[in-house]
Design a protein that fits this description.
Length: about 170
Amino acid sequence: TLFPLPSQSNLETFIAHYGDVYEHSPWVAEAAWQHGLRQEHDAPDALAELMGLMLRQATPEQQIDVIRAHPDLAGKAALAGELTHDSTSEQAGAGLDQCSPEEFTRFEQLNAAYKEKFGFPFVIAVKGLDRYDILAAFEERLDNGLAQERETAIQQIIRIARFRLRARADEAS
Ligand code: GUN
């Protein structure tokens, strides 16, 4: 189970513990709280589903802002150690901190090309992927249209949040 249990929390405590599940976007957790949390949301997947629904119900502008709140993969902020706790472990978990200079250069080119085309950074749930999988997905998604990439990015962000909540539940148990 999660700690503290959402159903036994107050708004301030809930945000303190779950506000960062969506990268730099605590309003998603707040919307879930305002929507009404019940006992059933004490399970990571149920809470993840509710928080995902809050993002789905947000305006297109709010959704784009959440996408834009994500750091580049293997980017300058990662190299400088400026990522959030979760992003740091996710990027390291995929071996992105082990890139060769050539691989870092490739990520830099792809990050720039993707942002140039879509106006937001490339976001992918990296759990279970290595840097070669990520580079392959990156090249493939660069060919997509804007509407499809917006949808894919939101799906991936909801997936990232589910993995983050599951990891916290594992840590707490
Ligand atoms: N997927 C999982 N973590 C991250 C992250 O920090 N940045 C991006 N772009 N995608 C991710």
